[in-house]
Write a structure and sequence with these properties.
This protein has helices at 3-29, 45-73, 85-114, 129-156, 163-166, 169-183, 190-216, 219-225. By secondary structure, it is mainly alpha-helical.
Length: 233
């Protein structure tokens, strides 16, 4: 099998993973059009559904961005596609917007459901039970995302010292996984459960592979595989 054929097959697999959130969400909702009405539903129910879909898409999009970025420095397998800086930034913007939609829709929906502004959901709270604990992990992940996005913008503006902050993405991904797998409705059951497990395991393998390759790489080529702050474009 040629490398180009492998690349096309990998892209097809990535596309299927990207479509999984929509498929699982459609099965869970059953009939999305039945929610397009103003009465007969609990307050904020439509926004809750949108928040779920945005969260699932954000998780998969974040994984795709990380995998393509890791492959640029240390490909996991022959033919695995890589992303240039332009694609990396576009995926980052799309992921950040999906995360923002997930958080905003959830907070507004909770506010409508309770009848008062639920700004407290944006702050970690580990003293009010299981649900609020993992909701707090999601809040921490959200604020770290905001920080890493800002750091990425600073790096693109010629401030390479911010690259270390931008590399906090493993913490974001780990917190997002715990948040989704503990209290996410769709992410814990059915097909999406196995998609989430595959996403986490594959990213962990890719990260370990990169670190092992960096250790085996001679010093005169390590700069190419793991560019320093002065080589960031």
């Amino acid at each position: 099998m040629t490398t180009s054929m492998k690349t096309r097959m990998i892209w097809a697999g990535l596309f299927l993973i990207g479509c999984a959130p929509l498929f699982v969400w459609m099965v869970s909702v059953n009939d999305p059009m039945s929610y397009v009405r103003l009465d007969g539903l609990p307050p904020g129910q439509q926004l809750y559904l949108i928040a779920k879909l945005a969260g699932l898409f954000a998780f998969c999009m974040f994984w795709l961005q990380c995998m393509l970025a890791l492959a640029r420095h240390a490909p996991v397998m022959p033919g695995f596609p890589v992303s240039d800086l332009r694609l990396h930034r576009r995926l980052g913007i799309a992921t950040a917007l999906l995360i923002l939609a997930h958080v905003a829709c959830f907070v507004v929906a909770a506010s409508l459901r309770t009848g008062h502004a639920s700004w407290d959901l944006l702050l970690p709270n580990f003293t009010h039970g299981f649900y609020r604990f993992y909701l707090g992990l999601g809040a921490i992940a959200f604020w770290i995302v905001c920080l890493t996005v800002f750091a990425g913008w600073r790096v693109s503006r010629g401030h390479p010292r911010w690259k270390r902050v931008h590399l906090l993405w493993p913490a974001v991904f780990g917190l997002a996984f715990l948040h989704a797998f503990a209290i996410g409705t769709e992410s814990r059951y059915g097909v999406m459960r196995y998609v989430v497990i595959f996403v986490v395991v594959s990213l962990a393998v890719a990260g370990i592979h990169r670190q092992l390759r960096l250790r085996r790489t001679p010093s005169h080529t390590s700069r190419r595989l793991h560019p320093g702050p002065d080589t960031v474009q």
